[in-house]
Each structure stands twice: as C-alpha cells, then as structure tokens.
Amino acid sequence: MRPNNKFRGNVFVANLPHGYTDEELAQAFDEHGLVLGAHLARDPITGATKGYGLVNLAPDRAAAAAAAALNGTEIGGRRIEARVADPDMAINLPRPQRAETPFEAPTRPHFPASAAPARRPVVVEYRTRRFS
C-alpha cells in the first residue's frame, strides 16, 4: 500500500508573500477555528514556495467563515485571496528521500541543502540470518 503524499484542506489561500511558511499560514487562520494542518505548495526541485496553499480547519463551518474574513486582507504587503477549497483540491507533499546504495544512480533531483526537508528518512536494514 502506497502512502498518501497529498495534503487536502478546506480553505485555499493564494497570493502569499515570498518566504511565507507553513507555520505562519497556520497562525493566520488560528483565530478562526482549529487548524488541523496548513501546507504551502512547493517547487519539487528547489523546494521554494509557490505563493499558494491549503489550510485544513475544523469544524467545517469555520472554513467558510475564515475564508470570508481573510479574503482580501493584506499579509506581508500582498492582498491575499482566500476561498473554500474544492473537495478534490490537494497539494503534493515532498517525498522523503531514500538512502542510496553505492550501486544506484540518483533517480530524481535532490533538494539543495538550504531547502532540504527538516525531517530525515528512517532507514531500516533487513538481514537474513541462517540457523543451523
């Protein structure tokens, strides 16, 4: 079974300033409901944010109220757009990097050191052991 590498939210937010973080996005919506998650879309190669993201608020009725309250407000010198997200809207999450063996060539570009995800992948080794 493949892990779900998508983030789904109930509020779509666009025109966010450069350098804005997931945590800042969550804080902007914190007073409008319980923030279950907030994620900005990122370029898969550089890791730079794209200026839009999704917020998942609870209860569901808080999403419409938050979108109405924050739509058109100014954050970081930019007037943001906030609206209720379509149910099928999702943002791809960065995949954890797997450890490479000396015999494998890289299969996909890696994040530069400055944009690397904060979490490190867990590497599990399996060894076979013969019992006599």
Mean pLDDT: 80
The helix count comes to 2
CATH superfamily of the domain at 6-92: RRM (RNA recognition motif) domain
Distance between the termini: 35 Å
For the biggest sheet, the summary is: 4 strands, antiparallel
Helix coverage percent: 10-25%
Structural class: alpha+beta
The H-and-E topology, N to C, reads as: EEHEEHEEEE
Number of strands: 8
Unreliable segments of 5+ consecutive residues: none
Spatial ordering of strands, largest sheet? 3-4-2-7
CATH topology of the domain at 6-92: Alpha-Beta Plaits
Strand percent estimate: 25-35%
Per-chain topology:
Elements: E1 6-7, E2 11-14, H1 22-29, E3 34-42, E4 49-58, H2 60-70, E5 74-75, E6 78-79, E7 81-84, E8 91-92
Antiparallel strand pairs: 1-8, 2-4, 2-7, 3-4, 5-6
Characterize the structure shown.
The longest helix is centred in the middle third of the chain and has 11 residues, at 60-70. The protein is 14% helix and 27% strand. It has a domain at 6-92: 2-Layer Sandwich (Alpha-Beta Plaits), CATH 3.30.70.330. The model has no long low-confidence stretch (mean pLDDT 80). The two termini are 35 Å apart. It has two helices and eight strands, in the order E-E-H-E-E-H-E-E-E-E. With 132 residues, it is an alpha+beta fold. The strands form three sheets. A four-stranded antiparallel sheet has the order 3-4-2-7, covered by helices on one side. The chain has a two-stranded antiparallel ribbon with strand order 1-8.
